[in-house]
TrEMBL record:
Residues 179-219 have a biased composition (Low complexity). This is Uncharacterized protein. It comes from the Bacteria. Residues 162-240 are annotated as: Disordered. It comes from Burkholderia cepacia (Pseudomonas cepacia). Residues 169-178 have a biased composition (Pro residues).
Length: 345
């Protein structure tokens, strides 16, 4: 490990003790027979540092709230509470919509042994989901690697590009994309490709990527829109692919608290994904439901799902006009059979 540059030459850096932990411990048969970790901040911290989601780039990985809670055998509420403890201490940060998690100080205690190790990070980094937090993590990694000396700095720049030449976290030798705060979007490609080709290339790669082990498809799959008018508009055309994506959107944008009823709502969210319901359709429907409702909506997900069912029933009957939601009679109708090929309602 490199010595802290602030340590005077005539003083030795404090000796730190480290122990190696094999990641596959978490899947070991005997280990799994032991009494499980109870939900707590310390238990979560050990898991974040050593769990199977960790990869070669120190402190950054792809994981969602629901998947980590399930991995630990905790209720979602317990996981969220433990994570909040660590986040309040700034020990960990996360963009849940992008499923990007960052442990800021991990690089200080897991520094690369050689410049070649730094170069090996490039492919892994490119597979992590794009978001603003990833940009922040790259800047932190750069600062820490530069402290290790010129050889390490050159290896980092050769892999990720120089900071002065590329403000984004894109791989070197690739043109900068438009500013993008959408977790589902990513600009990439070589210098001969334009932005549309860049997006198409990445979308194709993500479609075949694994959804687990810290790498894979983004939180939201790409849509068929080749050139959306804006990043915000593009985001609204996204069709979430997982129940956790729907839950995150509802919690963040509609003040719901769907943390303990994942199993109950999962079949509904799966049906919404199959029906290609976009976030815009969902938001517009919720707004209309709240406008026509005569009082508080106790179960927003079920309420909206019944609206989709009624609309689909009208579609399948070749109705000439969409029914007014104020007059809808919600019945047990499977809307999946009535959805059109374009997913519209």
């Amino acid at each position: 490990m490199a010595r802290d540059e602030k340590t005077p030459d005539n003083e030795k850096a404090p000796r730190r003790r480290y122990r190696r932990i094999e990641v596959r411990m978490w899947g070991d048969h005997k280990f799994k027979q032991l009494s499980p970790l109870p939900p707590c901040g310390q238990g979560l911290w050990v898991y974040l540092l050593t769990g199977p989601h960790t990869g070669p780039v120190p402190g950054v990985f792809r994981a969602g709230r629901a998947s980590m809670a399930e991995d630990l055998g905790w209720e979602q509420e317990d996981f969220d509470r433990a994570f909040a403890e660590a986040a309040d201490q700034d020990m960990v940060r996360a963009d849940w919509r992008a499923k990007f998690v960052w442990v800021p100080k991990a690089i200080k205690y897991n520094r690369p042994e050689s410049p070649n190790v730094v170069k090996s990070w490039g492919g892994e980094w490119d597979l992590l989901p794009e978001c603003e937090l990833k940009t922040q993590a790259l800047a932190s990694l750069r600062a820490n690697i530069y402290e290790l000396g010129e050889a390490f700095a050159k290896a980092f720049d050769a892999t990720f590009g120089k900071a002065s030449e590329k403000p984004s976290d894109m791989p070197p030798g690739k043109p900068p994309a438009k500013p993008n705060n959408n977790p589902s979007g990513k600009g990439t490609g070589n210098q001969e490709q334009d932005q549309d080709q860049n997006q198409e290339q990445v979308n194709n790669r993500r479609a075949g990527a694994s959804a687990r082990a810290g790498v894979g498809a983004s939180a939201h799959p790409p849509t068929d829109d080749d050139d959306p008018p804006s990043q915000e508009g593009h985001e609204m055309q996204v069709v979430p692919s997982e129940a956790s994506d729907w839950i995150s959107w509802l919690n963040d944008h509609h003040q719901t608290a769907l943390v303990s009823d994942v199993d109950r709502y999962t079949p509904i969210f799966v049906a919404w994904t199959k029906a290609r319901i976009t976030l815009k359709v969902l938001d517009d429907t919720i707004a209309e439901c709240r406008r026509v409702s005569r009082g508080p909506i106790n179960d927003l997900v079920m309420y909206v799902d019944r609206v989709f069912a009624a609309r689909a029933a009208e579609r399948s009957a070749n109705a000439s006009a969409k029914p007014s939601m104020a007059d809808l009679k919600f019945e047990a109708t499977d809307y999946r059979a009535g959805v059109g090929a374009d997913g519209g309602f």
